[in-house]
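Before a colleague's protein record goes any further, I have to sign it off. What it holds is a sequence and that sequence's fold in C-alpha cell form. My question to you is simply how this chain folds and whether the C-alpha cells agree. Thanks in advance; the entry in question is below:
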Amino acid sequence: MAKVAVGQWVPHVEAFVDVSRPPAQHSASVDALSALVNKDKLTLFVLVSKMEMYLTTTDHIVRSRGILLLGEILCRISFKQLDVNAISTLSDFFISRLSDWQALRGALVGCLALLHRKRTVGSIIIADVKRLLETFLQNVQVQSLAAADRKLCFQILNYILDHYPEAVKTMGDELLYGMCEAIDEEKDPECLKLSFNLVEAVMKLFPDPSGLAAQYASEVFEILSKYYPIYFTHGVGDDLDATRDDLSKALMHAFCSTPYFEPFAIPLLLDKLSSSLPLAKLDSLKYLDNCIRCYGADRMGRHVITIWFKLKEVIFSLSIDQILSTSGAKDMEKNKNEIVSEALTCLKTAIIQMGPSDEDRLINLILLDEDIVSSIHSVASEEASGLTSLQNPIQLHALGSVISILAESSAYFCTRVLQAHFARLVDSLEISAGRESQHLNNCSGPSSGAINYGALYLSVQMLSSCREVALTYKEEFSPIKSAKESWWLILEKKLDSLIHILQSLLTIDSQFVQSADRQEYVLCAVKGLIILATFPEPRLPLSASAYEDVLLTLTSVIMSKYENMHLWRLSLKALTTIGSSIVEFHASQKENIYNKVVDKISSLDEPCRTSIPLNLRLEACFEVGTSGSNCMLRIAKSLEEAVVGNISEATEHSSCFHSSCMSHFYKQLNKIFC
C-alpha cells in the first residue's frame, strides 16, 4: 500500500504539540495519525523516528505533548498487529518515561495502552510488566498529581493486579507501601472507587497467614476506615462514573477482601450501629452481613454475643411512639423499615454462617434472652387477649421475625424453638378461642376476651418456619418423623387444635370485632392454612382428610361468604396458591383431592339455584384455573358443558338466565381463555 508523504502527516504532529491549538484540533490530529497507522499508510517506526525531536527535547512542554501524542496513538491502534521488537521498544520507552515527572501523563497513557493490548496482536511481556510496576512504585507520587492523572495511575495498578497477577506475587513490602501511599488521603470519587478496588485485589492476592495481607492488614485497614461510612452527595443529573452507592459497595468489597481485616472491621461496624445517622446504620448492617460471610465462622465466633445484642437493639428499637411521631415523614419511616429489614437479614446470615461449635451458644443466647422470653410469655399469658398484644405491632412483627429466622435455619434450631414456645402459644390460643366462642353463644354485647392475636401471629410464624425446614431438608425425612423429640412431633401434637382455630376464624362471624381488626385475624388465619396445605407431599403434616377439610373450608367461604369481599378474595387467592404448589411439587395425592374442590367451584350447570352471583363464580373459576394447566382444562370442560346447557335453558326459561347475565358470562369466558 502506498505510504503517505511526510509533508502530509507531520502538520498533525505539530498541531498536537502546539498547546495554543483548541482541544478539538488536538483530537482531530490524533485521529488522523491513528487512521494512517491502522491503514498501513504510515508505519509506527517512521512515525516514532520523525517524532524523535518531540520525544527527547529538553523543552518539557513540547516533550510532554510529544509523549502524550504517541501514547494516545497507541491507544487507538490497540487492534493493530505489532511485532515483538516494536512492543519491546515501546515498553522500554514508556517505562523509562515514568521517571520524567514533567511528561508523566503521556507515559501513563502509553503504559496503560500497552497493558490493554491482547496477545493475538502483540502484547507486553510479563518481565516488562513487573519492571513497569517496580518503576512506577519507585518514581510516581500519585497523590501529588491531578485527579485525571491519579485516575490513570489507579487504572494501571488495577489492570496489572487483575490481568498480570504473576508479575505481582513475587514482590515484597514495596507493593503494600506503594499502595498505601497511593490511596491515602484520596478524595476524588472516581479515584476513590478505583483505590478501593485496588485494595480488594491486592489483599486477595496474598491469602497466606504469613503473606503481605496478614502482615499489613492493620495499616491498610487504618486507611480504609477513614472513608467509612461514605459521605458523598451528588445531584441526580451529575455525570459521574462513581455514585455514593458505587463507592459504598467498592469499600464494602475492600472490607471483605481478606479475613485479616476482621479484628479491625467488626468492632468498627458494631460501633457504627449505634450511630444516629440512618445511612451509617444501614451501611453498617450491609457491611456486617457481608463480612460475616467472608470472614468465616472461626473468626466470627468471638463476636457472637456482641453481634446479637447490637442487632437486637436495632431490631427492637422502633417503638410505637417513634412510628407515630414520624407518621408524616415518609422517608424516615422508609429508612427505619429498611434498617430493621437489613438487621434481620444480618441476623439470619449470622445464624447460618456460625460453625457447629457455636450453634448451641448462639441459640441459647437468643432463645434464653430475657427480653425474648419475657415478650413471648407476655404474648402467651392468659391475660393477653384480642389485640392487646398488638398495641405495638412493630414489636410483635420484630419478635415473630427473630423467632422465624432462628427456627427456619435448621431442623435442630426449629426443634429447639418449638420445644420452648409452640405448645404454650397454641394453648393460649385455645383458651382465648374458647372464651370468644362462649361469649358469642351467651352474650350480645362486645367481647372482652377476644382471640389472642399475638399468640395466633407467633404460632403461624413458627408454622412457616417448619415448612421452610421441610422444603430445604435434603436428608431422609423419616428419622425426623420417628424421633422422640423433633419439631415434627411437637407440631403433630398441636396440629388439630391449631387447624380448628384457623378454620373457625374464617367460618364464624363475629359482629363484635371491628372490621379492621377482623381483617388482621383473617389474614393471619388464611396464611396459616396456606402454610399447612403447601408442605411438600412426603413431609405434609396433615392427613388426607385434614387436607381436604382445609380446602373445603376455603371453598365454603368462596361459595357462601361473598358479601365479605376481603375474606372472599383472600380465600380464593389461598386456594389458587395451594393449587400452584401442587404443580410445583408434583404432588399427585394432593392433586386428586384438589380436583374435587375445583369441580365444586366450576360446576355451573345450575346457575339459577346457587347463591353466589355468576360473575363471582366465573371469577373464582378463572383464578383457580391459573393454578395449573390441569385445573384450567377441568374448568374449561365444565364451562363448555355449562354454556351448552344454559343456552338451551335460557331459550326455554329466559327469566332464569336472562340476556344480560349471558352477556357477562361470555365476557368472563373471554377473560379466561384470552
